[in-house]
Amino acid sequence: MRASDGFLERPALDGGVDLAALGLEADTDLAVPERIGSLAVEGILGAGATSIVFVAWQEDPGRRVAVKVLRDHVARASRRRFESEVRVLARLDHPAIAKLFEAHTSDRLGSSPYFVMELVEGWTLDQFARRRALDVEAKVLLLARICDALEHAHRSGVIHRDLKPRNILVGPDGAPKVLDFGIACLIDGGTSSVDGLTAGQILGTLDYMSPEQAEPGGEPLDARSDVYSLGVLGYELLSGELPHDVAGRTLPEAVRALCGVEPMPLGRRSKALRGELQAIFAKALEKDRERRHRSAAALAEDLRRVLRNKRTLPAKGLW
Q: Could you give the strand order of the β-sheet that contains 176-178, starting from the edge strand earlier in sequence?
């Protein structure tokens, strides 16, 4: 397991995100530099195990940005993963993915490696849904837009591998942003190419992890691993429950549950979710990836079909 080093910003409206819930710590003992390169540092946003996230002002073109700085004296593997994250982000350009602006990964001049990203204002996916009291139609539309972002990543040769509510922020305008590609891997010929950074390791968050990702050393991952995680996101967003709650279980017990126990059908969580939505998420959560949606785009299309045929959605007032 790992702490998230994602880019997060307190919402502009009313009081901020719970950093602890996001896997970050407000580390008041950390020294805040006046500048990082050409950037004027305004403050610290949070800290993870291997990096620190600052808020800074970028004079040209005149905007506030998030700056992720690698901590001093981290292990070589952490440094390589940091550099891999930069390579991944450089491939991505989608309105629902936080943008990379610039990167400085060499420390030959004595400064710590860092990169500069879009500062995202918003709430985590689950926080936003609660605050806005979203109905099923709004949740399904939001999920489809998140699928669009992942389809772009997959077509760009990137598998996220750590999709979860706190790695998706939703702004005051309702637009989602996918964050934290820190353990993403690149797709080579349709399947993941592991370069030794994560081989044989379980990295990510078990609650949202595909069965094949939970079994290190198995078949290479492909985009359908993220499709499974999207299925978990949707199941939880619609029902308020995870398909598999692995809290309190040992790692072997959790992996056995993910790989061998079928989740409760969505319609048994709520009668309002029977029918098309139950079938869609049962398909996304298939243990056998050959039986899942072939892509995030295919899942998005199923969700939008439900929206086009609103008679299959529960009546307003049920959610």
A: 123-124, 168-170, 176-178
Q: pLDDT tens digits, residue range 241-284?
A: 999 988 888 888 888 888 888 999 999 999 989 999 999 999 99
- Give me the CATH number covering residue 302: 1.10.510.10
- The secondary structure of 206-244 as a DSSP string is GGG--TTTTSTTSSPP-HHHHHHHHHHHHHHHHHSS-SS
Instruction: Please check whether residues 110 and 250 belong to one and the same domain.
Output: no
d(CA 148, CA 296): 7
Domain holding 46, by residue range, is 20-118
pTM of the model: 0.83
Q: Does 162 participate in catalysis according to the annotation?
A: yes
Cα separation, 161 vs 197, in Å, equals 14
Let me know whether 105 and 183 are in one domain. Answer: no
Q: Are residues 84 and 190 in the same domain?
A: no
Cα-based distances in Å from 61 to 65, 222, 258, 313: 11, 38, 47, 45
Helix, strand, or coil (residue 195): coil
Of these residues, 162, 180, 207, 222, which one is catalytic?
Answer: 162
Tell me whether residue 2 is in a domain.
no
Q: Is residue 317 part of a domain?
A: no
d(CA 37, CA 126): 35
Residue 12 lies in a domain: no
Which tokens in the block code for residue 173?
């305008």
| Digit-coded pLDDT (tens) for 177-200 | 999 898 898 887 555 555 444 444
